[in-house]
Amino acid sequence: PAIIYRKDYRPFAWLVPETKLDFELGLDSTKVTAILSVEPNPQAEASGRIRLNGDGQAPLSVKVDGEAVNSWSVDGEDLIIPLSAESHEIEIATQIDPSANTQLEGLYASNGMLCTQCEAEGFRRITYFPDRPDVLSIFSVSMRGPADQFPVLLCNGNEVARGTTDDGIGWADWHDPWPKPSYLFALVAGNLVANSGTFTTMNGREVTLNIWVRQEDLSRTDHALESLRKSMKWDEEVFGREYDLDLYNIVAVSDFNMGAMENKGLNVFNTKYVLADEDTATDADYDAIEGVIAHEYFHNWSGNRVTCRDWFQLSLKEGFTVLRDQLFSQDMQGEAVKRIEDVRILRAAQFPEDSGPLAHPIRPDSYREISNFYTATVYNKGAEVIRMIRTMVGEARFRQGTDLYFDRHDGEAATCEDFVKAMEDGAEVDLSQFRLWYSQAGTPKVEASLLHSGDTTLLALKQEVPDTPGQSRKQPMVVPLKVALFDRDTGKHSGEQLLILDEAQKGFNFTGFDKPPILSINRGFSAPVTIQRDVPRDDLVFLAANDDDSFARYEAMQELVVGHLVAAARDSLSDTERTAGEDAIAQAMRAILADEALDDAMRGELMMLPSQTYLLEQVARDGATADPGTIHEQREGLKALLGARLAQPLRDIYERVANVPFNGEGARGALKVKTQVLTYVAASDPETAAELAARQYDQADNMTDRQGALMVLCGLDHPERTHKLLDFYTRYRGNALVIDKWFTLQALSLHPDALEHVKALAEHPDFNLKNPNRVRSLYMAFAGNPYAFHVESGEGYRLIADLILALDPINPQTAARFVPSLGKWRKIEPNRSELMRSELERIREAAKLSRDTYEQVARSLD
Ligand code: B3K
Ligand code: ZN
I want to staple 807 with a disulfide (CB 3.0 to 4.6 A). Which of 15, 60, 793, 815 is the partner? Predict the structure, then answer.
């Protein structure tokens, strides 16, 4: 497949001021008539024809200015119509089969309803159109279909009229006053009910809010509705953004390729990010719903009012909107814990991407299939990059920058460069060198060392941006680092400072210390870099107990454990060092358990050991390879050791938190700590853990408790495991989202037979390759279970490769998402590495591979 380059961008030759769409709806056959009013684009080179994108269809008829034309031709999937350089009306009829659309792109059937997904290039599967984000049009839509099947008919914007004919055909006309690109188009037809409410905007506009679901799900929509209201209010207060229609519809569908979609006035959501009640959703589920509802709402400005010029600019809307949703959730859920969670996600998903074969800058230079670039780099690193600007200029100037950006580019399709320029002008800052964050891939490494003499300490910083595919010899970046220096005697620091490292090496002097101070660096994770430093263990123990920056406190604990486990996994620990490391970690953990000033939500974070995936990345640093088996053993060994040594304090704390009533003060933190404690007990004393977990399961009055208990039981070879899994299945049978959890818990488990369990679950009657949530619940969980996925025989790799091959013809976008798990092969020890690589080769050899999967496999093998 052809490679598309950012440098090749040209504006489209035509403008499409208006688009009229007519749908005759049916699950198996929908007829679409599109009327496009077009005129030559004065900003582009004139052309004697118009190219309209299509995908998998043929025109039934083509008319220009009311006259049928036969002179059209097809080039690849596109339709080419000869056209003189003046205004015209083009009318095209097509017919599609939504039931046969298993890719879930374009118009498709789900559970008897019809819905759409158009970003990035799905609209061309509905009708021929210039399907690119820089062509903005005003859409009017008419639709009709059997009223009993589709009593609710929704589209973007406002409903103009609706009715039912005598012969039972329901119809509706919709109009969206805001010009938009085709990727924001949406249509929904089905038997749905709404949880409705209102929101009054800061200028007094009353907006009707609807959360549309199937009747049986209605009782689980209050949280989504409330989250929407909070998002609308917050965006007014914090970014000055007001909603711009009288209606905001959200529809939940159970077959969906990702989380949700920000279509103008008609968001389509995965049920996973809408439905919640205490019996079926965990605290984490509640938070995720709030975050995704906010994210899609915030897109109304960062994405819809100001959209992207081309798909290389994706981070313009996604990076910025992720930052906006993170800041919102920090305000709703608490800043400290939210920041730690966001960094954990970045490290788990983005760092491996940045150090692997799929590394790309947040603004990529080329792609074959744009769906492959909805990545943690574009989203999460994109958010970090804008967060750094905010850190450097401060909140007030940042707001001046975003105000100018929205004002300057409202109604336009903009670029990342436009955003940076608006920031420079609005926030009054020079971002010339900072722009490198948009073009250079790879996670910068910063080396920090302290040199002390007299009363002066020199902090020496060195940075290096590693080579990535297609990019070597990189320029030094602008790295904003928040630091504080703790006085060894008083245990205090005299204020946090922001240091800007913008050269390959730079030194900073601090005076007034009799002894070498203790360095707290990259506080709040002010820059998305890895810090490398030689630091005395005792300093980390001190910071883990005392740092006043919550993130830095968490980080000190992580650094302590990572340093120890990486050395252990590399087999480079002497017996004395091993003992010293274990003692230090146990001492730090004991202090965390005992700290009465600490709230439990934060305690739960501090108790969490670095994941095996993160450890693997650290072991495989600088071209080394890692043995996942050893990492697993060492990490489990440490857990068992801590569980045994801290048995009493762990039991005490378990009893305390177990008595905090659900929904009472501090309940969320208590629930988190409770399950954390169980994971340590499970490693050191499985029999006691099974007993505690079984009781926690039985007494649970909420899903957080129940799922936590079942998670622990799933890892144990104990009869309670079987009992509770059966109970859970029976209790929640028929509730797809909870049954997804049932699959996931087994696929993610530490049980020695997890791989066998996954193979059996793939044959379970509830398993279904056509439903992305179900596929992810089993196989994404499995691919993220390092112990089971990396079994020495290579069977785990084969399982994922077989899945990719089976899923690719059904849903290529979802299939391609599994490739990166095998693409890690260069970081793994030689035997396993060879097995992984040969599975990738087997996939590449397959007869008919989608563009999605082909691109990911080819890049992974390069
Ligand atoms: N913009 C959509 C993602 C579309 C993915 C297309 N493959 C959801 C979001 O980021 O809000
Ligand atoms: Zn988004």
Answer: 815
Query: Residues 25, 263, 365, 855: is their CA dihedral positive or negative?
Result: negative
| ipTM > 0.95, yes or no | yes
Q: Given strand 445-453, what is the order of strands in its sheet?
A: 505-511, 456-464, 445-453, 530-532
Q: Rounded to whole angstroms, what are the CA distances from 353 to 56, 81, 311, 461, 753?
A: 32, 42, 19, 25, 29
For ligand 1, atom 2: residue with the closest CA: 261
Task: Indicate the number of domains in the chain.
Answer: 3
Query: Using an 8 Å Cβ cutoff, are 381 and 354 in contact?
Result: yes
Considering the domain boundaries, does residue 765 fall inside one? no
3-state secondary structure of 430: coil
Span 704-718, average pLDDT: 98
Do 415 and 471 lie in a common domain?
no
Domain that holds residue 371: 307-439
Same structural domain, 28 and 150:
yes
Last residue of a domain, one of 143, 160, 191: 191
Domain check: are 454 and 424 in the same one?
no
CA 588 to CA 598: how far, in whole Å? 14
Chain-centre distance for alpha carbon 401? 26
The CATH code of the domain that includes 314 is 1.10.390.10
DSSP 145: E
Beta-bridge partner residues of 367: 4
pLDDT band at 664 (very low <50, low <70, confident <90, very high): confident
The separation between CA 194 and the C-alpha centre of its own chain, rounded to angstroms, equals: 27
Q: Is 296 a catalytic residue?
A: yes
For residues 121 and 53, membership in a common domain is answered with: yes
Whose alpha carbon is nearest atom 1 of ligand 1? 261
262 C-beta closer than 6 A to ligand 1: yes
Q: CB neighbours (10 Å) of residue 88?
A: 17
Q: How far is the CA of 399 from the centre of ligand 2 (A)?
A: 20
120 token code pair? 């990035």
Q: What is the pLDDT of residues 831-856, one digit of tens each?
A: 999 999 999 999 999 989 999 999 99
Rounded Cα distance between 815 and 824, Å, is: 17
* Element holding 445 (H helix, E strand): strand 445-453
d(CA 309, CA 9): 9
355 lies in the same domain as 477: no
Q: 464 and 380: one domain?
A: no
